[in-house]
Amino acid sequence: MASLVFQCGETRLTQIVCGVVVKGHWNSLLKSNIGSNLTSTTVNQVLLNLSQDGCRVSWAFFQWLESNLNHNHSLQSTWTMVHTLTKHKHFKTARKLLEKMAVRDYLSSPSVLTSLVMTHDDPDLNSQIWSWLVIFYANSRMTQEAIQVFEHMRVHGFKPHLHACTVLLNSLAKVRLTDMVWKVYKKMVRVGVVSNIHIFNVLIHACCKSGDVEKAESLLNEMESIFIFPDLFTFNTMISLYCKKGMHYEALGIQDRMERGGIPPDIVTYNSLINGFCREGRMREALRLFREIKGATPNLVTYTTLIDGYCRVNDLEEALRLREEMEMKGLCPGVVTYNAILRKLCEEGRIRDANKLLNEMSDRKVEPDNVTCNTLINAYSKIGDMASAMKVKKKMLEAALKPDQFTFKALIHGFCKLHEVNSAKELLFEMLDAGFSPCYSTYSWLVDMYCDQGNKEAVIGLPDELSRKGLCVDISVYRALIRRLCKLDKIVSAETIFTLMQAKGMKGDSVVYTSLAYAYFKSGKAIASSDMLDEMAKRRLMITLKIYRCFSASYAGDGSILGLFWGHVIERGLISKNILKHIQELDVNS
């Protein structure tokens, strides 16, 4: 038999192997040279031939090759096996093999997808298998790969299953890729997928994530026009969206509509409504709704929402009373509950009581999280106890908690207030190394610290110092420094940094030019201010609504001077008509 292997071709070898397998003489493949001469092409053809009589023998042989000959199946032979199992309705086994394949091989690659599409021409089977692949990638948070498979199905005329579309849209909505949700949905409709309640629920959920009330209401109307009736999830999502937007009347209207339609509100419904009132400090309405709960049992989320709400309106006594009530009902406070109370104690400077609460958390085995630690660090930093603040940071690291931007921001602020330059800068560098970008406030504190010390050279040299540390210094650093120096009326230093920035090949943006223009205008340098505004007009740097609001708040005490400056800005057309309309509405409302 060994000599025969070398004399025969691929087709003959396939026939020999099939004959051996069908007769059950599999071990003879181990004793001859046949097994060692099995190529991926031969194995694939053998599997195809065996599958004509079902999948039992082909699947057993597929597994036998792996365990007895240490054969690494090719992408082609594995794909054939998945098709065979699916064809004979062994769906669970087929999906498991497909998922193993998806992890091992880069299946979402266009070239791989194209080669696999060409191997089997059964459209129903292909739709089934490709849909499974979309589901696997979407559930594995590999959204880009899921989209690529979906696109390949569409291009080759394979209709994705409804469940695959639902899972894909849901995975995109979860990571707030709202634009992509609508693109995929439109393509889904074009290939003939008919939406059901689950698809509409995902779309409304996407609207909730993006805060698009109008679109959500439109979808709700569309559902009902085609006799797809909203369920509990639909209504709860709409209530959540309305509450986030402060539209309490509309949210309560949905609750009423649910009850009239025979869908009783659950605790999620009540929690959303209560949270909406608490967010706006409307604790009387929140508590009244809490007392009116029927057909549902208040849970940890309910009580924590109310406790947090009362802490935010400075009613710690009522918050603590509610905590006692929840414990009497057998609900143990979680870390979020403790964080709400801890934040209020720290705000009131009751550090000793805050530490007692921490000890209670420890006794009850409630692990602190980043919010807990940041609350304490911020409290210690505000009172200048940086030794205690750094101890908390050390405990964070020991508990495997990673400091975030709020951790670094609080510590830098604390050290800047104490004028401890080296500690502040060390934390700034650590913050940058951790991948966090300091905000305007962080750079402002550093500028203030140096200016208090009369050390303007240190401010001017800060960008170069950051560069020497191997950090990328972009426009945001220069913008923050210039903006703060202008606020402090340190115009000469601001000009110096502006010149250095330009020497690095960076052009100022709207914030930089507006900061300098207003600083010049305020100091009586009308020509220099006018030149800055002219340069903005030349480069088409416009004042956005955000910039207008920010500057108006920052320089609110300047009165008529700021109003005159905005007049010059408007004359040069640096504020669009649309933004100007918003500004006029803001002025009327104020």
What does this structure look like?
73% of the residues lie in helices and 0% in strands. The chain has 35 helices and no strands.
User: Which whole number gives the mean pLDDT?
Assistant: 90
Count the DSSP helices.
Answer: 35
What helical percentage do the residues reach? over 70%
* Intertermini distance: 96 Å
Q: Please state the CA-atom Rg, rounded to the nearest Å.
A: 33 Å
Secondary-structure-derived class: mainly alpha
Q: Choose one word for the global shape.
A: globular
Query: Which regions contain 5 or more consecutive residues with pLDDT less than 50?
Result: 1-7
Number of E-state strands: 0
Descriptors:
590 residues, mainly alpha, 35 helices, 0% strand, globular
Write the layout of secondary structure elements.
Blueprint: H1 2-7, H2 10-23, H3 28-31, H4 40-50, H5 56-68, H6 75-87, H7 91-104, H8 110-117, H9 123-139, H10 143-155, H11 162-174, H12 178-190, H13 197-210, H14 213-225, H15 232-244, H16 248-260, H17 267-279, H18 283-291, H19 300-312, H20 316-328, H21 335-347, H22 351-363, H23 370-382, H24 386-398, H25 405-417, H26 421-433, H27 440-452, H28 456-468, H29 475-487, H30 491-503, H31 510-522, H32 526-539, H33 545-554, H34 560-571, H35 577-589
Helix pairs in contact: 2-4, 4-5, 4-6, 6-7, 6-9, 7-9, 9-10, 9-11, 11-12, 11-13, 13-14, 13-15, 14-15, 15-16, 15-17, 16-17, 17-18, 17-19, 18-19, 19-20, 19-21, 20-21, 21-22, 21-23, 23-24, 23-25, 24-25, 25-26, 25-27, 27-29, 29-30, 29-31, 30-31, 31-32
